Amino acid sequence: MEHGEAAVFLRNQIVPQRSQLGRELKKKIRDRSAKVGVVGLGYVGLPLAVEMARKGYQVTGIDLMREKVDAVNSGMSYVLDVPSETLLSFVSANKIRATQSLAAVEKLDTLNICVPTPLRKNKDPDLSYVIAAVEAIRNHIRPGQLIVLESTTYPGTTREIVLPILEESGLKVGHDFFLAYSPERVDPGNQKYTTHNIPKVVGGVTARCTEVAVLLYEQFVESVIAVSSTDSAEMVKLLENTFRSVNIALANEMALTCHSLGINVWEVINAAKTKPFGFMPFYPGPGLGGHCIPIDPYYLTWKARMNGCEPRLIELAGHINSQMPAFTVRLIADALNEKGKTLKGSRILGLGVSYKRDTNDVRESPALQILEGLHGKGASIYFSDPYVSSINIKENTIKSIDLTAETLRSMDCVVILTDHSSVDYALVAKFSRLIVDTRNALQGYSRSDVVVL
Ligand SMILES: NC(=O)c1ccc[n+]([C@@H]2O[C@H](COP(=O)([O-])OP(=O)(O)OC[C@H]3O[C@@H](n4cnc5c(N)ncnc54)[C@H](O)[C@@H]3O)[C@@H](O)[C@H]2O)c1
Questions:
Q1: pTM of the full predicted structure?
Q2: Ligand 1 centre from 234 Cα, in Å?
Q3: Which residue has the least CA distance to atom 10 on ligand 1?
Q4: Which of 54, 91, 113, 263 could lock 258 by a disulfide, CB 3.0 to 4.6 Å apart?
């Protein structure tokens, strides 16, 4: 939208007094008459939409993908943490509806933006989804709206990127509209902590922005923590995920060191965690996956470098973690070698391919890299995952196979890549000829020859 158009747009509106806008919005938020919107109906946006509907709001979900919009409108959930019955009950009660049209923004009072923030090939931040969403919102923005960015990003994004685009509308932040950042901390597959009881950090561009955004979240989240700026709120999320990346890298380095010394790293960690203070256990694994931990630290290192700071520890952690899939392939090759077999020609079953336990998300999953590595060395690869029906390896679609005694017996090696809780590990322990366990899932099962990470 051009500046001239924005002025016309504003002149044609009956705009309440600026000072009243915040008061009116807060009243609507409190009495649930606010029409709330979620832009991006993925792993983050859909649970958020459901939580808002649960607290009595009428929610409009906006997504560019027709399949997701159609699925939501027919009450069919594609996010494991959101049961279809729950979604259907809100859709049937007209509490949730989805649309592909960003024009819906005009009718909404609040908007939470939950679009992807991936990396470019060179590991620089890719804000193209955020920018596209914000530009579309700018074209339909009206006075009195609250806009909150939830996508994970580097400090400064809301103030330096989002705000200038929205102000191209001619509206002024803190007066005509309210803008805040609130990091999303949802942990897919976590039954104990979900959207309503994970504390929410909020930072507004102005004090009034913070006030309105805090009020919105207080309606459906048990605890809300206000920080002084959007930059601080953005940095909170990057600290949390960098903390995980660095500590997982330490656990992975411990695993490699223990392996070279013939020590079981799992036994060491389990004993170390008995210390009641000053130690928090992190565990090794076949590599990092998902849309957060492998990606978010690079948002921070990019911004740090732009400001003359060299974040070496964070980059080293990323490097160590990225070596784990290749190490796992070597571990499997060595285990087969011990049995007098070569990787080439062996039948290998990957057990669990999503990036973490009890989810169906295969984005950035190290399992895919490992299966691809095994395939590249001439192994015949198979997989079994109760939550993932098919994966693509080198342009071939492979379908999940049932975990039966016959399947297990027919494999030269079973490699546990993700420890889903519904898998029958007793069956795996009983019928597999050779097992490589990257998650210590077979601890406690009577089998002494399991090769652990
Ligand atoms: N998945 C997680 O566990 C998790 C946890 C915390 C934070 N986050 C962060 O939350 C953000 C969203 O992640 P996600 O996992 O939900 O992603 P996702 O890919 O599951 O969902 C994003 C959705 O946004 C839609 N979209 C993209 N551009 C759009 C646009 N311009 N307008 C409308 N819709 C658009 C996509 O079609 C998609 O459905 C990311 O920044 C991520 O880092 C994710």
A1: 0.90
A2: 16
A3: 151
A4: 263
